[in-house]
Amino acid sequence: MFNLRDWGADVWERSSRPIRVLIALGAIAIAASLPLLGGTFLNTPVADYGSVLVFPVAIFVIMALGLNIVIGKSGLLDLGYVAFFAIGAYTMGLLGTKTGLNSWEILPIGIAMAMFAGLILGVPALRLRGDYLAIITLGFGEIVRITALNLNSIGGANGIVGIPTPPTVFGLEYTFDNHRLYFWTFLIIILLTIWMIRRLSVRRAGRAWESIRQDEDAAELMGVPTFRYKIWAFVLGASVGGAAGVLYASKTLFISPDNFTLQVSILILACVVFGGMGNIWGVILGAIILGYLPDRIRFISDARLLVFGAVLVLMMNLRPDGILPRKKREKALPGKNQNE
Amino acid sequence: MLANFQNQFASLTVGGLSLGFIYVLIALGYTMVYGVLRMINFANSEIFMYGTFASIVVIRDVFKFTQQSEPATGFRLIYILLFCLIGSMLMAGILSVFLELVAYRRLRNKGSNKLAPLISAIGMSIVLAEFMRILTDSRYVGSPRVMEKKVLGNFFGAELRLDNVIIVVAGLVLFIGLSQFVDKTRLGKAIRAVSMNEDAAKLMGVNLNFVVSGTFLVGGLMTGAAGFFYILKYENTSFNIGFELGIAAFTAAILGGIGNIKGAFYGGIALGLLETYASFFLGTQWKAVTVFLVLVVVLYFRPNGVFGEAITQTRA
């Protein structure tokens, strides 16, 4: 069967360096011109196309890329990814309203906080495997949300209002409805994340994750320090989630615990699996579709989530490996995953 | 606080036990499926939710109870309660089998990766919950009162309310029935065989699809019973209750050791009691946090759950 992903990889591998640069620049140019398309067809019934492109689409892409490190690359099932997103967003919300720091200064702090949370969760949780890990991470996500909900010192159920916008850069002003500027900012973060994942994938860490995903016991026997690399995957995934949180808070200017429910974790997981676990381009495509679709089909207002759920079931049954699955040779050996 | 707790201890225990048995039954739904397929049946929480609605439909539309009706008594009450229980169980059981056919069977036969069925289950769970939301107009649905919640007696100062007693006794009966079924009957043996070694069971002539459907049916029946007990205890439901109880019950199953029927029993009761005590000390808003923290601590020291077998070494 024709596999777009393999075809793309083939083209990429056969190209010389200048052509690769051209392809990459072309792809970036297309992505950067997305908000210029405008067009009434792409507008969703409730929101302007430009704003949908920033949230949920761009934020989903960032988060799905981060979760892909954890699930797609290293095979660790994380159902509480929203916790890191929440920690990033609350760092932005609290520091942004209570101190004079601006978004760019808070971004590294938010990332560091999320990484630290990833470490705290990872050390006890990563001793467990599979579904136990899933439920622990799920619990962690709920703990973060409930704590935010019940601590009145950080806004409680009302959340945090009046989060400042990012400061003006090169004379470009981040006003609330300047969607293009936000989108381009987010695009830079997306590109940085893609670059980080691609670099890591071909190095020691990427190989270690790959071996852990395919067979953890064998990896351990071959001398891969599995626990350490699992922690690394977790912490790096968390850092991307934290960055997404900071950006989200400085875009919406208002956050409350309701933004960080388990449903978000599940939706991001759905993006990853729907698009094609382990493959960056598949994950991005999945996040774009699942971010855009529910808003686009709002005209069937009441039944839109119903349709969304049905699409998930249908897609999984037709293409269990996602729209753009990972390369064949990267799949686990047949028979190895039978009892997973 | 502590003296107060001692006074309240017995009545908290009774309330916690009846909540615990609701968890036990839902947890059995998770654990049966997990034991056979090594997969979280994410949509089990919605099956439970449909079970609660089935009870209300039976009470309201079959027996024509309204909010003003006199509560039933005597044999009529027993007859009505049994009818509700069976209605809920059948609804949930059939839905559960249907769910497996639609969401899992094809993926299972294809031998897909492990996450695809999970996403499919999440999709089904969204579909089921949204369908009910549209049907009920996002509102809570109250159940007419079928019986008077009489206090039967005292037990170390705790009031034994009729509904709590029924839940504990009927829950125990259902649990014993299920373990007998799994231990003694032909289908039960087949289920155990598949859960031990799928390939070997197939070679021995076990019809895998039949066994899986049977497992979903039995798990669904138990979950449906939990739905009826929930209505008996709380007398209202809505399209989104599945989530919270489902998560709690799944935690209970993990706590006891998932894939293990006894584990679901002890885990469910432990969780019901724990939640009730924790809400007494810390207030209900922190109860989920306490539950998860206990779970983390338990799994840290006993990674297989308290009564679990060594699932920790089975891969991802």
Question: In a few lines, what is going on in this structure?
Answer:
The complex is a heterodimer of chains A (340) and B (316). Chain A contains 14 helices and 2 strands.
Structure overview:
The complex is a heterodimer of chains A (340) and B (316). With 340 residues, chain A is mainly α. Chain A is 68% helix and 1% strand. Chain A has a two-stranded antiparallel ribbon. The model of chain A is unreliable at 333-340 (pLDDT under 50). Chain B is mainly α. Chain B has helices spanning 2-37, 44-62, 74-110, 115-136, 162-184, 186-196, 198-203, 208-234, 241-256, 261-282, 287-301; strands spanning 141-142, 151-155, 158-161, 236-237. A two-stranded antiparallel ribbon of chain B has the order 1-4. The termini of chain B are far apart. At the A-B interface, helix 7, helix 12 and helix 14 of A face helix 3, helix 4, helix 9 and helix 11 of B.
Key structural traits:
heterodimer; A: 340 residues; mainly alpha; two-stranded antiparallel sheet; 14 helices; 68% helix; globular; B: 316 residues; ABC transporter involved in vitamin B12 uptake, BtuC; 11 helices; 4 strands; 74% helix; disordered C terminus
Based on CA inertia axes, which overall geometry of chain B fits?
globular
Strand arrangement across the biggest beta sheet of chain B: 1-4
Distance between the termini of chain B: 44 Å
Low-confidence stretches of chain B: 310-316
At the fold tier of CATH, the topology name of chain B is ABC transporter involved in vitamin B12 uptake, BtuC
Q: Helical percent range of chain B?
A: over 70%
Topology:
The complex is a heterodimer of chains A (340) and B (316).
Chain A: H1 4-14, H2 17-32, H3 34-37, H4 49-73, H5 82-98, H6 103-125, H7 130-150, E1 160-161, H8 179-201, H9 204-214, H10 216-221, H11 226-252, E2 254-255, H12 262-275, H13 280-296, H14 304-318
Antiparallel strand pairs in A: 1-2
Chain B: H1 2-37, H2 44-62, H3 74-110, H4 115-136, E1 141-142, E2 151-155, E3 158-161, H5 162-184, H6 186-196, H7 198-203, H8 208-234, E4 236-237, H9 241-256, H10 261-282, H11 287-301
Antiparallel strand pairs in B: 1-4, 2-3
